[in-house]
Amino acid sequence: MARPVVIGIAGGTASGKTMVARRIYETLGSDRVAIIKQDSYYCDLAHLEPAQRARQNFDHPDAFDIPLLRHHLEELIAGRGIDEPTYDFTQHMRAPETRRQPPAAVIVIEGILILAEPTLRELMDIKVYVDTDSDVRLVRRIRRDVEERGRTVQSVLRQYEQSVRPMHLQFVEPSKRYADVIVPEGGHNAVAIDLLRTKIAAVLMEAWIEIEGPASAGPAPGS
């Protein structure tokens, strides 16, 4: 089996990273793609009181369990399955359930800060940054956190002003320089998605030829 192709998809909060990952998943098929979310790897804050948990900066690199995330990526690359953690955003703590993730030909890791982490970047074959206007991202963030995470509009705006925006400017936006592909407007950009699909197919083909040898591409001339 060839080494899996690892694709990192970064970008600001609510930029459309998940939709880009879903487009890849739909194109290549569920049996070939594993999607790993950085949000699943928030550090467990169960040891803190609920009020203390809510005051944490969830947009700083230190909010994530990067060693565990890297270990799980290495396991998938080696062809071994993992038990991906799940996170309870309403309680700000890791849930007891895990999600079994079998190995796959393509591993997609998506999250706001994955390109800001050198130890994660070095495992990636294709690095993508989803670039979406800040006002669009804020509206999406409010809608998501209110509808899916039980937040109030006031709490979402307060967090955005205190940590989301400052951390975006300090860590997320600068990580764009590491991207191989920049996708404006996320999964709604059909042209960029098509180009990304072509790139993924080319990398997969290179990996297959490398593992099988040049002869696998077809008979030699004159044979």
Automatic annotation (TrEMBL):
One of its GO terms (molecular function) is ATP binding. It catalyses: cytidine + ATP = CMP + ADP + H(+); uridine + ATP = UMP + ADP + H(+). Keywords: ATP-binding, Cytoplasm, Kinase, Nucleotide-binding, Transferase. Pfam families: PRK. It is found in: Cytoplasm. CDD domains: UMPK. It is an enzyme of class 2 (transferase). GO terms for cellular component: cytoplasm. NCBIfam families: PRK05480.1, udk. This is Uridine kinase. The gene is udk.
